[in-house]
Amino acid sequence: MPLRLHHHRLAPAPRRTRAAASWAAAVADHARAGRHAAALTVFRRVLAAHPAVAAADELAYSALLRCRDARLGYQIHAQACRRGLAASNPVLACSLLAFYSADLPAAARLFDEMPRRDAVAYTAMMSALLRAGDWARALALYPRMLSAGAGPPTEHTFTNLLALCASRRLCCHGRLLHAQLLRWGADLNLVLKTALVHMYSTCGFMARAHAVLCSTPDTDVVLWTAMIAGHSRAGDLQAALRMFISMEQAAAVPPNAYTFAGIITACASSSAQPQASQTGRQLHARVFKFALEHDISVCNALLNFYSKSSARLLDLVHVFSATDSPNVVSWTAFISGLARHGKDEDAFAAFAEMRASGVQPNSFTVSTLLKGCSSSSQSFLHATKIHAYVLKTSLGSLDVAVGNSLVHLYSRFARMDDAWAVATTMASARDSFTYTSLAKGLNQIGLPTKALELLVHMFREEVRVDGFSLACFLSAAAALPSIEPGEHLHCCSLKLGLSSQVPVSNSLINMYSKHKCLENAKSVFHSIREPSVVSWNALISGLASNVCYYEALSVFEDMTLAGAQPDNITFSVVLYACAHGGLVDIGINHFNSMRNSFGVSPQRSHYTLFLDMLGRAGRLTDAACTIEAMPIRPDVSMSGIC
C-alpha cells in the first residue's frame, strides 16, 4: 500500500524532538546501507506515531529518496514542493536531483528552479548528465558553476569530471581540472590521487601519473593497480612489473585480484616478447598464494594470456576448467584461444556449450569466432550456422563488428553475393574494413574493375579511406590493362596524406612494376623513409619480372648492406632472377647463403627454383645431387626438371 504523504493537514513544522530525530536517523542509516525495505518500514511507523513531524522531516525525505521507489519519490517531491522544502533545503534538492538522474529533463527542470545552487547541487546535476551519457553538457557545467560563484568544487565534483576525462580521453581538460584542484587547495587524498592517476594513465601520460603517485606518501592497492593498468594499456610490460614489485616491496601493499588481472593482461599484450610467457606463468603461480585462482577477473586475464601466448592448448583448457562460473568474457577468451590453435570444431562446440549453459554471447564473441574460421569447408558450414543464429537473435543487424566479420568470411570464400548482402544490411554501419574485405574478395575472383567501383561508394557514404583500403584498391588497379586508374589512386593517396604509409607505398611499387613503369616504382621506393622487407621485395620482384635481372640482384645487395633481413620471399625472387638471367654461380652462392648467412631455411619452393636454375643451365648432375641431398621429399615437378 503506497504512502499517502498528502492526506495530513499541513501546518507549520513543529520543532523536532530528540525522539523524532532518532527516527529520521534510523531511516537514513537503513537507506544508506541499502536496507530499503527496513527504511520504509521505520518511516511508516514514524508516520503513524508522529504524522506532522514525519511529513515535515527533510532528513527522512532525503534518505527515502535513495530507496528508488518511483511512486514514493513523486509523493515526496510533491510534498517538498508544497512545503517549499525543495527550494529552501539544498540537501533535499540534491537528493531529488539524484532521484531524477534517470529522467534528465525532470532533473534539468528541478535544477533550473533551484533559487540557490551550491557546488553540491552542480555536482549532482553533473552526475545526472553523466549517467545520461551527455558528457559535453556535464563538462560545460563546471565553468558555469565557477562563474556563478557556487563555492569551491567538492571532492565528488573533481572525481566525476576526472572519470569523464578518462573515459573520453580528454587529457587537456583533465590537466586543467588538475590545475583547478591545486588552485582551490583541495586535499589530495587517495580518492583524488586515484582519479588523477587513472585519468593520466588512460590518456597515456604515464610520467604525469607517476608524478601524482609520488606527490604524497599515501597509497593503497587501488592506486597501485591503476598505475599497473596504465602501463598494461601502453604495452609496457617492464614498467608494469616495476610497479608491481614496488607495490609489494617498497610500499608493502599486497595485491588484489584486479592487480593480478592488470599485470597478467600486460603479459598477454606483450606476448611477442620472450620473457612475457615466463613472467605470466610465474604470476599464475603467485595467484595461488593469495587464493585468487577462482576469481573471475583473474581467470579471464589468464585465459586471455594463454590464448595469446601459450603453444600448449592444455594450459588454456586447465584455466578454463578452474573457472567456477565462466561469464561471457571467459567463454570469448576460451573460444578465441581454441581458434588460434586451429581447433575450429572445438571452438564451435564451445560456442554451443556456452549458449546451453545460459551465457548469452555478445557481438565480440561472434566476431571472434567468425574471424578464427579456417579455410575448410566444414568451418564454412559452421560459420553459416552462426550467421543464421545472428539473424535469428538480431545480434548483428547493426553491429559493425559482427557484420564486418561476416563480410570478411564470405569474401574469403569468394561468396561475394553473400558478402554484399551482409554489407547491405549494415546500412550506415559500414566502414573502411567492410569495403576493404569486399575489394579483397573481388580481387581474389578476378574482378578488379568491380573492386574499384567500391571506392565510389566509400566517397558517397563519406567512409574514411585508410592506408589498408587504398593498398587493396591499388592491387586492383595493378591487375587492369591501363595504368590510368593506378595513377589516379596515386594522386588520391597524396591528397589524403596516405602516400607516406608503407603499405600504400608497397602497393604503388607493385602497381607501377606490373605496368612496366620502373622509374616510377623506384621513385616511390626511394621516397620511403624506412623501407620494410616487403618494400625491398616489391622492388626486387618488379625489376626481376621486367627482365632487369642484374639490377634486381644489385638492389638485393643494397638491401643487405642497409641491414634489412631478407625472408623466404626475398630469396624466391632472387633465385628466380638468377634462373631466368642465366646467373648460375651467383644463384648457387645466394642459395648457400640463405641458411649460413641469414638463417633462412630453404623451403620446397626454393629447391624448385634452384633446380630449375640448374636445369636451365644444363647442370643436370648438380641438380641430381641436390635432389639426393635435400632434406625434403622431391615431388613430380622437381623430378621433371632433371
UniProtKB/TrEMBL annotation:
UniProt record, GO biological process: plant organ development; RNA modification
Transmembrane domains' residue ranges: none
Keyword Nucleotide-binding: no
Gene3D superfamilies, per database record: Tetratricopeptide repeat domain (1.25.40.10)
One MF term in the entry's GO annotations: RNA binding
PPR repeat residue intervals: 118-152, 220-254, 327-361, 431-465, 532-566
Keywords, alphabetical: Repeat, Transit peptide
InterPro entries registered for this protein in UniProt: PPR_At4g14850-like_plant, PPR_rpt, TPR-like_helical_dom_sf
Cross-referenced Pfam families: PPR, PPR_2
Annotated PROSITE patterns: PPR
One GO cellular component, as annotated: mitochondrion
Keyword RNA-binding: no
PANTHER family: OS03G0861900 PROTEIN, OS07G0578800 PROTEIN-RELATED
Protein name: Pentatricopeptide repeat-containing protein
Organism encoding this protein: Hordeum vulgare subsp. vulgare
The organism's taxonomic lineage, starting at the top: Eukaryota, Viridiplantae, Streptophyta, Embryophyta, Tracheophyta
Originating gene: LOC123397470
